[in-house]
Amino acid sequence: MAECIYSNNINKSILTSGFTIPVDKWDIFAKCLGANLQKGERKEIVVWVGQLKCSASYTNVNLTGENAGRTVFQVRYSGDLVSELRKIFSPNSDNYDAVGGKLEVYSGKVGELTFKCLPAVTVNTINEDSAVSTTTGVMNLNTVVTKILNDYVPSKKETFAGHQMGSFFRSDIPLAIYETGIVESAPYLITGSVGQGNWAMIPWVCIFDRKITTTATKGIYIVYLLSKDGNSLYLSFNQGCTDIRKNNSKKDTIRIMREKAEDIRKRIDSRGFNADNNAKLGDGLTELGELYQEGMIFYKEYKKGNVPGESELQNDLRLMMDIYKEYVNGKAENTEIIDVEVGEEQLSTKDTLDQIKKYIAAKGFTFNEGLVENYYLSLKSKPFVILAGTSGTGKTRLVRLFAEAIGATSQNGRYKLVSVRPDWSDSSDLFGHVNLNDKFIPGAIIDFVKQAELDSRNPYFLCLDEMNLARVEYYLSDILSSIETREYVDGKVTTDPLITENYYGADITAKGKYGVVRIPENLYIIGTVNMDETTFPFSRKVLDRANTIEFSTVELLANFDSTQGEVKAIFADNTFMKADYVFFNQCASDKDFVEDVCIELQDINKILEKANAHVGYRVRDEIVFYMLNNKNAGNLLTRNQAFDHEIMQKILPRIQGSSASVKIMLCELFKYCAGDYESYQTESDDVSAKMMAAANKETCKYKESAKKIAFMVRRFEEDGFTAYWL
């Protein structure tokens, strides 16, 4: 007999994400699977649920946090078994617990398992102070507060890197707060911190109203602050201090913050919270810790060993949220709204990109000349870009540093890195699913997308790391299709609904929290890919919808001059990134320029037709948009450089094959890019060598494309097959 257990990093739904089996039951599974699974190894088997046969996969994974050191098996079902599993696992909700119940496991023949549900030990009423929700496995506030007070200070004696306390503050606590239903994820961002690189003296968990601020450095917010000795946890209505301190002495900063606090105390009822300057986070505080202390407007102290019950903790949070809402709704000034420094400085697009490149260089990274401009133009033309190249060439780093350079960070919730899993097969992994208890379980990006939609003023960057570990056209198809429906509504670019309220099933809370989800105009999706034997190739559907930027060269020589000193980020709003063109007819004002581009594309398309590789209207439109964006920005790239990039990014990635027509087409396309060259013959054995020599000449019109074509022809000569990808 094996008992289901909870794990913070494994989904609790039996239907779609499975359950976990303790390692001491390994012998049962070893007999069924026929051999041991190594860590990280995955094996497909057949599972019988009652009389219903379905497929499943087992993965040997390691847990962190409370279950650190335990190895478990994660089961993931496939097939539409919702109704049948409900009948089997919970025929009577009074007698069976679909999530926390016990399962009897026994083997049939090797490769087949039978799962039989047994009566679970459940109660009809749930103790409000129970440590873990019986439906979700999420901690309650009493458990969270107790764990902070008991465990944080002892944790500081242990190694910081990778410590479970970090994920507890960053993930578990925000989840517990959201789970109360008091704080909604759409209008509010919850962020926790235990320090960056080293343990923080005063760790914190903030609740931000996104209209006011998304960073602890400025604005007004709710924050849980742990005292230096770990004996007191403060729930406070607080104010950011860092931005004030930049322009004032410490003494003046404290004065300004106290004056601000008194002003708010006069206008808003305290609801029974302390409304004084007597909070004490400890002696010998850092300046930042002291300013945290001085910033408290209203507060309540929770003492170690005397933590209130769940109902009181939730009521305190509810009252503090009432204060926050009253402040936001009634404030007479707009000084807390996030400022856009770029708008104040009136920087040109070129000047902004120069500053971005300086920021990236100061972080120790140097990219090929024109790459940052190309990346920017690609995102502005279509909010979906693929960065391709060998591992370690800086693809993911470019996405992160570019976002940081214009003020979008993981700390303020405007940059998100999602590692793609090999078992992703549909959009539910990204957006979420409904479990057996009719509760919606959010996916990897739904909260991020919803936040971007609510914060339309600022750009948001989603990086799908190693996106082709799974088939892109499977899990990303809904997003790709949604992007193609872009249109103008009330002056904003919007899309058809990506998710409707039916997606959440009977979960009323999820419907209220997320509602209808679209791809907002300020969301930019970037995928990084490595093309090797462990990944999937791209379909034309995907390639037609993206600019594919190749990272083929790396500058390994150190340039210490460029890394000297600090370069500050520029806080650019979405006007810097927003698409200027969505429909082809918007280009009519540049008729002559557009016609010139289209004539050249028509000539190229005639060559591509010889191997059935010609492009359609979508590719035409996006190339035209790219060229116009470059022109309107004051020619960040020369006209030929820009068109060269688009041949590389929109045309060549679609070409592959082993037929003679493919080689002939590539040779003609090369002649178009580089011009005729001496002794050119398609049947020659050294065509690629002659091409490379011609591509390096000053007379070559489109150098990068010509070099790439030469490489593709060489691969054809050597392997009898060619493709764009390395």
Q: Can you summarize this structure?
A:
The chain has 726 residues and is of the alpha+beta class. Helices cover 36% and strands 17% of the residues.
Description:
This protein is α+β, with helices and mostly antiparallel strands. It folds into four domains: 2-117; 141-330, Metal Transport, Frataxin, Chain A (2-Layer Sandwich); 343-563, Rossmann fold (3-Layer(aba) Sandwich); 584-723, no CATH class. Helix content is 36%, strand content 17%. It contains 24 helices and 23 strands. The strands form six sheets. It has a seven-stranded mixed beta sheet. β4 and β5 (71-78) form a beta hairpin. The protein is elongated and about 85 Å long. The two termini are 50 Å apart.
Give the SSE map.
Blueprint: E1 2-3, E2 20-21, H1 26-33, E3 42-49, E4 52-62, E5 71-78, H2 82-89, E6 102-107, E7 112-117, H3 141-155, H4 164-179, E8 188-193, E9 204-209, E10 220-226, E11 232-239, H5 242-246, H6 250-267, H7 287-294, E12 298-303, H8 310-330, H9 341-345, H10 349-362, H11 371-381, E13 384-389, H12 395-405, E14 415-419, H13 428-431, E15 432-434, E16 440-442, H14 446-454, E17 460-465, H15 472-475, H16 477-483, E18 487-489, E19 492-494, H17 508-514, E20 523-529, H18 540-543, E21 547-551, H19 591-608, H20 617-632, H21 639-651, E22 656-657, H22 660-674, H23 687-695, H24 703-719, E23 722-723
Helix pairs in contact: 3-4, 10-12, 11-20, 19-20, 20-21, 21-24, 22-24, 23-24
* Largest sheet geometry: 7 strands, mixed
Give the fraction of residues assigned to helices: 25-40%
Number of strands: 23
What is the rounded Rg?
29 Å
CATH superfamily of the largest domain: P-loop containing nucleotide triphosphate hydrolases
Tell me which CATH architecture of the largest domain applies here.
3-Layer(aba) Sandwich
- For the record, the CATH class of the largest domain is Alpha Beta
Strand content: 15-25%
Assign an overall shape.
elongated
In the CATH scheme, what's the topology name of the largest domain? Rossmann fold
User: What structural class do helix, strand and pairing data support?
Assistant: alpha+beta
> What is the domain total for the residues?
4
- Residue stretches low in confidence (pLDDT < 50, at least 5 long) are 1-64, 66-137, 331-346
